[in-house]
Specification:
- This protein has helices spanning 14-26, 43-55, 88-96, 117-125, 140-155; strands spanning 4-8, 29-32, 74-82, 85-86, 103-110, 130-138.
- It is α/β, with parallel strands linked by helices.
- Strands 1, 2, 3, 4, 5 and 6 form a six-stranded mixed sheet that branches.
- Helix 1 runs parallel beside helix 5 (140-155).
- The two termini are 14 Å apart.
- The mean pLDDT is 86.
Length: 158
């Protein structure tokens, strides 16, 4: 039987909200990525610092990636887009955990400015994995009910 895990990072809780719904509906394992050090910023400063980290390719060390990834056939990654790029914790995960011959799904949350994200995902996943699908969650706070149902329909295709 194929085994699936959702690996996610959520700073504001938007991605976590979608992931928890998918976990409940699909009964998948879940791993929340936790940077070793992370300041909890609010307001403009959170966008400024997050954008700076993303644009400058600063990748945090993660606390909890010591998981038996071999037991999973499908890895779904989920995280926010900051300044047009995937959040640093997601990029750290992809760099820190080399995996191959996996089916991969990618779900990302954003408030706009995601034009280059699909290309970033394809480049990071590499040719050693099978990218099964990408799902964009625009404005989760404003449209959660619709987005969660669309995300579930997408997840069932993986």
């Amino acid at each position: 039987m194929a085994k699936t895990v959702i690996v996610y990072y959520s700073y504001t809780g938007n991605t976590a909200r979608i992931v928890r719904y998918l976990q409940e509906m699909m009964d998948w394992d879940v791993v929340e990525l936790r940077p070793a050090r992370q300041a909890r910023l609010t307001g403009f400063l959170k966008y400024f610092i997050g954008g700076f980290l993303s644009l400058n390719n600063i990748l945090p060390k993660l606390e909890n990636v010591d998981v038996d990834w071999v037991k999973y056939d499908t890895i779904i990654m989920a995280g926010p887009v900051w300044a047009g790029r995937l959040a640093p914790a997601i990029r750290s995960f992809i760099k820190a955990v080399p995996f191959s011959n996996k089916d991969v799904g990618f779900l990302y949350t954003h408030e706009g400015g995601d034009k280059k994200v699909n290309a970033q995902i394809r480049n990071m996943i590499g040719s050693k994995n099978n990218l099964k699908g990408v799902f964009s969650c625009l404005n989760v706070v404003e449209d959660y009910e619709n987005i969660k149902e669309e995300a579930l329909a997408w997840a069932r295709t993986l």
